[in-house]
Amino acid sequence: MQRNMTLFKAIRAAATVGVVAAAAAMLAPAASATVTSIGIEPSVTLGAHRYGTTCTYNVSVTVDDDTKRVYFFEEGQGPSGFADAMPSGGVAKTTWTPSRPGITYIYAVQPDAWPETRQVVDVGTGIDLGSACVAV
């Protein structure tokens, strides 16, 4: 009788451990690629705004997964965006020409990642002078 009770307790303990492990596995978040930061390299921009339409800027993002492409888009463009790039060494780079004046956001995202990373930008009407931009 004592032996059966000990065996029963051992089986019940093993079953409990199995149920807890299965629940933990189901509740754990899925691993996904993530853009961890986004930056727009400064250029010589004169005027009331930091960025100007018709002028081009370098955008770089850091990621935690080099195997998934990064998609870049401006607020209102949707997921087709203005560029996509494959990261290397944890960084993906592209160029961006603002599509319209106003305060907007530049987004960067990798597939199956949430949330996307964004950077606020203040865009004016630009005049590209080649080595500088006038943003009014």
TrEMBL record:
<keyword id="KW-0732">Signal</keyword>
<feature type="signal peptide">
    <location>
        <begin position="1"/>
        <end position="33"/>
    </location>
</feature>
<protein>
    <submittedName>
        <fullName>Uncharacterized protein</fullName>
    </submittedName>
</protein>
